Amino acid sequence: MNTVAGDLETILSSGIRLAAPLAFAACGEYVAERAGTLNVSVEAMMLGAAFCSIAVAGLTGSATAGLLVGVLLGALVGSAHGALSHRWHVNSFVVGLLLNALVLGLTSYLATVGNPSRHQVELVSVPGLRDLPVLGAPLFVERWPVYLLLALVPLAWWLVERSRWGLELRAAGENPEAAHMTGIRVNLRRRQALLWCGALAGLGGAYLAVGEVGSFNQNMTAGRGYLVIAAVIFGGWRLGRTLAGCAVFGLADALRLALPALGHTVNSQLLISAPYLLALLAMLLFTTRQRRPGALAQPFRRTP
Amino acid sequence: MTRAGPWVSAAIVTAALVLPGLLIAVTGGSPSAALRALIQGSLGDATAVSQTLLYAAPLLLVAVGACCSARSGVFNIGQEGQVLIGALAGAAAGLRLAVPGPALLLVVLLAAALAAGAWAWLSALMNRLRGVDIAVSTLLMTFLAQQVVAFAVTTPWLLQESRLGEAAALPQSNKLPSGALLGSLGDHPGLQLNLGLAVGVVVAMLVAVALDRTRWGFRLTVAGLNPAAARHAGIPVAAVGGIALAVSGALAGMAGAVLLASPLSTNRLQPDISIDIGWDGLLVALVARNRPLLTIPVAGLFAVLRAGGNFLAATGVPPYLVDVVKALLTLAFVAPAVMRRRSVVA
Amino acid sequence: MRLRGITKRYGAVVACDGVDLTLERGEIHGLLGENGAGKSTLMRILLGLETQDSGAIDRDGRAVTIAGPREAAALGISMVHQHFSLVDPLTVWENVALGRSGPVRRAAERAGVRAAAQRYGLAIDPDARVGTLSAGERQRVELLKCLRRDPTVLIMDEPTSVLTRSESAELFTVLRRVVAAEHRAVVLISHKLAEITTATDRVTVMRAGRVVLRRATTATTEAELAREMVGREVTLGAAVGVLPHATAPASPAASAQTALRLRGLTARPGLDDLCLTVHAGEIVGLYGAEGNGQKSLGDVLSGLTVPDAGTVEVAGASVDLRRPGALSAAGLGIVPEDRHHAGVVLDLSVAENLVMTRLGDVSGRVFIDRRRLRRRARALADEYGITAASLDSPLRDLSGGNQQRVVLARELSGRPRVLVAAQPSRGLDVGAVEDLYARLRRCASDGIAVLLISTELEEILALTTRIATIFRGRIVGELPTAQADGERLALLTGGVA
After folding, report:
1. Which ipTM value was assigned to this complex?
2. Helices H, strands E: what count in chain B?
3. Which of B72, B308, B55, B85 is closest to B197 using CA atoms?
4. In a domain? residue B8
5. Domain final position from C230, C255, C282
6. Are residues C244 and C140 in the same domain?
7. What is the number of domains present in chain B?
8. Domain for residue B39, yes or no?
């Protein structure tokens, strides 16, 4: 019994750690997609931020400074994406893939040349609660930025569902023509959403680097950006379900890592591909229950 | 188009050329030496040129396919996965089918094309049934394809190599029989002209003719340019797009078979056999603005960057800067993408 | 609000020519005119979507400039859009809030919508999703959205085109309340004479960019308005002058073959059990105010939409409308209303556009025969007088008239039994219109059944032998052109008769 609880605790802990970067970025991507942009560049935002956070943490000696710069870099990638796709009307998928390639090349080069050092933020543990059985350690002994999620998730929800900005943003994502007629600057709102997406994806990437791992390795995000997109799709463009998707994906990854060590055989390919399969299945099966923005991935250009 | 368009492109081209040099200089290297190495490694001698041409073949195939789907208004970005599925099917055919001699090569190429074509067509089907965005589903299916191949080469009853004695089996397939390999064309001292390149060039020309000179190509182009007018003219737009997507996948799959059967790989199916050819091939098509004949020189350029990049690594400069150049150059070409298309009647 | 001497030109066309319009608070002002009379341009100027070439706008005696939609909104000018400004997946109150500014206070917004709905007697649930609402309910939301902005001038453009009779009546009650109790000015743009006479206080009639009548509504009659709207003299003088009524082909013998039969066509939105027959050799005009289902009919006959019910028969045989190109194969050619949408491919060459629908004629089983393609394109271009620098240049480079000729040439090259021309003269200059009319008449004399869908009365009167009027997606009247006059038709299409 004791070992089962222990195993469960290990898997939960690692699941949460693996899900946290996804959750940050998903709070960003969710907003961008509600505004109508399906930006593949989340990967670039996360990877670039991961690198910069480690580099800046190395320079300043402060992991917090690293996190902040990571957020800024993510926002920078977001604004580049916004300018290219919602100002100069380059295909958004193309922009995303190119930004991913660009950032992957740059960070790989710089990481090889610069050999960044190790830096990590502090672990915090919540007294009392951390001693709870099974759930205590996974939930209450964490690197502190994880707890930012407690504020950011409600904020993302509030922004989209309750603020005027969010209302206009949703209008831009659902029906850009109508939004335009009402006097909303559609492409501006979409660029702003991308900026927010960049900042949060950047936070996710930076957290991965200075929070969890403590260092940067080449291509360290390894497709997490695409996982985030899969999570938003799986969640049917609802924030709660999107985050549930992140948790499921994180747990699947944790299982893949933990089970062999515990003596179970496991089909790791199935676990790795589960998120993408689930996202595809969600699109095929649950179309009616989704809140897919009406103009998702459709550019908006004013007719002269 | 915004008036800033051309300026943006110019700025990006400049960045593509200056930024890598700057980075090399800042990190203590010599930009000119790196450039020399890049050229040396790709065009310097017969071996280098051979290497470059080897890379050009699969790039060309992927790019030509991308032209087909893009021209029909369908945006396929899952070539990387389609390359993998093609390699998988090619390996399965090459290892399992008892076809004698060079005919086996043909079977490998066809199996790869069929499998990857069907794989890509699934996206068209999902779009037809449930309106799933094709760009999204082709992208997601790329990650599935990676795991399918990884599964195949780690599963003994599928394609994992047979164990020899004590050694543990690696995650790869057995080596393809020699009959299934792409040999060299002609006999040139030093220079290797692989059959794969011939396949690529012939396919590019065939597709160019098909797009510009046949009824099929015409219908496809009309469907891409104006779906409403196409329907009015009796063209079943969705079906035409689905076929174009399948062709695009089939050609990417054929690229996978070429990778598998040419000296670019160990002639074994491995999880990383696609070496990003699918992504790069898509960029080639973007730079060539979806014109099949233009993909030939552009694929050449990208192959130069690849072969040169590998050589660069040998001289101590990390090759990743080449990816930066590729991405920025492509960006420069797509930034003024609103440039008016010329008519297809030359 | 006063508009003085507003003039707006588009190239050679004068859309508004020295228009004066005074809008008083507490008054519903009817603005009446045919399509192209300049009403929309005038309103677009008022909304800041266009700037006038000359003329001035005063508000409460002070001159103002309206540079853009924001300025217009700040001046209290607001328009109830017909179809475009609601976001379906959002709720009613969210849509209403979208038009406002400042933080979104849910409870207050909801209460505001509820209060406004009650005040104006517009029953609506603030929490309903707009996508689930009927056309009439959507109209209420549009109206609420405008009224919540507290406008001084409220513009309504053809507000009743999608409404049922009782919904229209309800709308006018609300408008009456808006002007009487809240002292706003309302501009009601309409084709429907009955609406204008029952709902407005003053009426201005525009024709060809000028104001031709300005009067208190009580001092006028529907007959007078219809007469003024259409005009006694023919405005398309040059084009119609060459085609006087007298040369219209005699009505085909009663035994003439039925070439096109539409039976019970129903499609959402727009078509409601539409039945119509066109015989070989006659030109039938389908006349009606814009937005009464003509566009849906055009889409069905172009093969773009499959109707919910009903059949299209060409030469007696029912056409399977689900098969792409079936109509064309059955012998129905169409000059669609929106050329650029479904008629042509701008980025293909002129030659390719000319052969697009009949590719089989210029190709073998697989390959296109470039030489045959060119020869055929050249022949068609010569026959139809298409002037292009080169037949290989993109169609985009051609003038509107030449593009229209390309469509006509292509559709007629298949020797169809039926030709449908939807608003064919729109956007063409006088010379091109003249040429087009001559072609249509030649078609009829060659034994083709021609269906002319148009909102231009002169066109209908000059070309057709029989007129069917369309109102809310069905045919409401049919009469030989010889018995038709502008007044009678205006009454029919205004839904009076």
Report:
1. 0.91
2. 13, 0
3. B55
4. no
5. C230
6. no
7. 1
8. no
Number of structural domains chain C divides into: 2
Residue B336 to chain A, least CA–CA distance (Å): 8
Residues of A in contact with B283 (CB under 8 A): 97-98, 101
Nearest CA in chain C to A294: C89
Residue B203 lies in a domain: yes
Report pLDDT digits (tens) over C89-122. 999 999 999 877 788 889 999 999 999 888 888 8
Angstrom distance (rounded) from CA A284 to CA A291: 14
CATH of A2-121+144-289, one of 1.10.10, 1.10.150, 1.20.1440, 1.10.3470: 1.10.3470
Residue C441 belongs to domain with CATH number: 3.40.50.300
Q: Do C368 and B234 touch (CB under 8 A)?
A: no
What residues of chain B lie within 8 A of the CB of A267, using their CB? Answer: 151
Q: Which domain holds residue B91?
A: 53-303
Both C323 and C402 in one domain: the answer is yes
Residue C86 near chain A (CB below 8 Å)? yes
Task: Check B228 against C342: CB less than 8 A apart.
Answer: yes
Q: How far is B238 from chain C (nearest CA, A)?
A: 11
Does residue B34 belong to any structural domain of this protein?
no
A113 touches chain C (CB under 8 A): no
Pick the residue of B237, B240, B341, B343 with the most C CBs within 10 A to test the interface with C by mutation.
Answer: B343
- Tell whether the model's pLDDT for residue A126 goes beyond 70: yes
CA angle (C211 as vertex; C205, C212 as ends), nearest 5:
70
Q: What is the DSSP string of C242-286?
A: TS-GGGSPPPPPTTPPEEEEEEEEEETTTEEEEEEEEETT-EEEE
Return the residue in A177, A181, A238, A303 with the most chain C beta carbons within 10 A, the one to mutate for interface testing: A181
- The residue range of the domain holding C457 is 237-493
Kindly tell me if the per-residue pLDDT of B321 is higher than 70.
yes
B119-148 exposure pattern, b = at least 16 Cβ within 10 A, e = fewer: bbbbbbebbeeeebbbbbbbbbbbbbbbbb
Question: Are residues C214 and C242 located together in one domain of the fold?
Answer: no
CB C279 within 8 A of CB C313: no
The answer to whether C293 faces chain B, any CB pair under 8 Å, is no
Range with the lowest mean pLDDT among A150-159, A170-179, B322-331, C166-175? Answer: C166-175
Rounded to a whole number of angstroms, the distance from the CA of A129 to the nearest CA of chain B is 39
**Do C253 and C358 belong to one domain?**
yes
Task: Tell me how far apart the alpha carbons of residues B58 and C91 are, in angstroms, rounded to a whole number.
Answer: 52
Query: Which pLDDT score, from 0 to 100, does residue C495 have?
Result: 56
Q: Are both C310 and C357 inside the same structural domain? A: yes
Q: Please say whether the beta carbons of C229 and C31 come within 8 A.
A: no
pLDDT tens sequence across C433-450? 888 899 999 999 999 999
pLDDT > 90? residue A221: yes
Verify that C473 and C341 share a domain, yes or no. yes
Chain B: closest CA distance from residue A116 (Å): 13
**B289 in helix, strand or coil?**
coil
- Is C67 part of the contact surface with chain A (CB cutoff 8 Å)? no
Q: Taking CB atoms and an 8 Å cutoff, what residues of chain A touch C90? A: 167, 170-171, 174
Task: Please check whether residues C203 and C340 belong to one and the same domain.
Answer: no
Q: Which of C304, C328, C345 sits opposite B225 (nearest CB)?
A: C345
